[in-house]
Write a structure and sequence with these properties.
The protein is an alpha+beta fold. The protein has a domain of about 45 residues. Helix content is about 25%, strand content about 30%. The chain contains two helices and four strands. Strands 2-3-1-4 form a four-stranded antiparallel sheet, covered by helices on one side. A hairpin with a 3-residue loop joins β2 and β3.
Length: about 70
């Protein structure tokens, strides 16, 4: 994932594949399907605004990469 674009967690109330298709129409990049009802998306702030307003999206949240992994 590029550092200059935020990662966005998108919560879905509609089937994820339908929401993923709608997100593709915004030119944002689908990175991963997370769990049963979430998508990880790389999006500009403008794209994030459009994604938040899509049918089938119940919420968006910035995915902060601030978790430190403890490795032996």
């Amino acid at each position: 994932m590029t550092d200059d674009l935020p990662d966005l967690l998108v919560g879905c109330s509609a089937p994820r594949d339908e929401v993923a298709a709608r997100i593709a129409d915004t030119d944002a990049t689908l990175r991963e399907r997370v769990g049963r009802a979430t998508l990880l998306v790389e999006a500009t702030p403008e794209q994030a605004d459009h994604i938040a307003a899509l049918d089938g999206v119940v919420g968006t949240e910035r995915n902060y990469r601030d978790v430190k992994l403890l490795v032996d």
